[in-house]
Amino acid sequence: MFGCKRQGSKGVGRIIINSLAVALCLLPFVPGLRASAQPAGVRPPVLKDVGIDQLLNNQVPLNLEFRDENGRTVKLAEYFKDKPVILSLVYYDCPQLCTQVLTGLLGAMKGLPMTPGKEFINLTVSFDPREKPELAAAKRAEYLRRYNRPGSEEGWHFLTGDEVAIQALTKAVGFRYIWDPVSKQYAHASGIMVLTPQGKVSRYFYGIEYAPRDLRFGVIDASAGKVGSLADQVILYCYMYDPTRGTYGLVITRLLRIFATMTLVTLAALFFFLRRREKQKEAQWKTQHLAGNAP
Q1: Alpha-carbon gap, residue 120 to 265, rounded angstroms
Q2: What's the rounded Cα separation, in Å, for the pair 18 and 12?
Q3: Which residues lie across from 74 on neighbouring strands?
Q4: Which residue has the higher pLDDT, 107 or 46?
Q5: In this structure, are residues 96 and 206 in contact, taking their beta carbons and an 8 Å threshold?
Q6: What's the per-residue H, E or C state across 202-267?
Q7: CA–CA gap between residue 168 and residue 263 (Å, rounded)
Q8: Taking Cα atoms as reference points, which of 195, 5, 178, 165 lies closest to residue 73?
Q9: CATH superfamily name and code, 8-224
């Protein structure tokens, strides 16, 4: 739905509920929709340029300058060092959809065994050039309070910027939005992106809710396996990212491969254990036999 694909792993009921939520959020942009029926398959004119294009492996310009929540001029390169970056594009005065995107991200982060600033960086950027650092600071304080996880203060940043920098960033990640002069709001899609420490687009997650498992796998993938435990790596091996749906799906052949390997290892270990026991018994029998034949 206008780039806002839902994750299929949570059931048909949840898909319907979230689709309705996104539709309700977009109603202010299509006032004519309620007055007259639209031909099937025709997108309202105000939404024809709205969506998220998958630009996997595309490089984000790290020399772009923004302002952080304290009003300090910063380059994106400051946040792209040795950790993956979860990027959320919103505008802080958004009355509906942006709040749901950030709330969905917050819920997913609460389900992660990872913390911003330790395993990854969380970067929220406003695409409204009119917004100022004071508003960004207020939003950051609100979501850090709701997140309530010690040590995350240095890992979640809220940025604002000018039109040129915003356009360059949104274009690099395929995020398309427009200003609707009728509703006096931005029409935009919903989703988040995961970028590598080098600033390349690695994963897209659509909608307003994000499965903690998928987000965790996305962070591990973007880090090239440098984040997460050995168990995470084994589990991730059994899943594959589906770019069309923005989710991770179980790969049965890989799962069977792991079970087959575990079976072979178990059988080999059992064989060597039994062989060792047999040699011990043979050695014990020889010792007793020699002792019995001694004069």
Answers
A1: 35
A2: 10
A3: 66
A4: 107
A5: no
A6: EEEEECCCCCHHHHHHHHHHHCCCCCCCHHHHHHHHCEEEECCCCEEEECHHHHHHHHHHHHHHHH
A7: 52
A8: 165
A9: Glutaredoxin (3.40.30.10)
Phi, psi (degrees; rounded to nearest 5) at 83: -130, 150
Locus of tokens 């994106």: 76
- pLDDT digit string, tens, across residues 54-95: 999 999 999 999 999 999 999 999 999 999 999 999 999 998
Identity of the residue numbered 132: K
The per-residue DSSP string of 28-78 comes to GG-THHHHSPPPTTPPPGGGTT-EE---TTPBP-TT-EEE-TTS-EEEGGG
Query: For residue 48, what pLDDT band results from cuts at 50, 70 and 90?
Result: confident
Question: Are the beta carbons of 88 and 102 closer than 8 angstroms?
Answer: yes
Residue 35 pLDDT: 34
Identify which has the larger pLDDT, 282 or 24. 282
HSE of 102 in the Cβ direction (CA atoms, 13 Å)? 27
- Asked whether 45 and 235 are in contact (CB, 8 A), the reply is no
Which range, of 45-59, 74-88, 158-172, averages the lowest pLDDT?
45-59
Residues 254-260: contacts with CB under 8 Å, at least 24 apart: 258/234
Q: How deeply is 190 buried, as exposed, middle or buried, from its count of CB atoms within 10 A (0-12, 13-18, 19+)?
A: buried
Query: Strands 85-90, 191-195: parallel, antiparallel or unpaired by DSSP?
Result: antiparallel
pLDDT in tens, 237-265: 555 667 777 676 655 544 445 555 667 67
Beta-carbon neighbour count of residue 269 at 10 Å? 10
Q: Where are the domains of the chain?
A: 8-224
pTM across the whole model: 0.69
Confidence of residue 136 (pLDDT cuts 50, 70, 90): very high
Question: One-letter amino acid identity for 42?
Answer: V
Which residues does 7 contact at the CB level (< 8 Å), separation at least 6? 205, 206, 207, 209, 210, 211, 214, 245, 246, 247
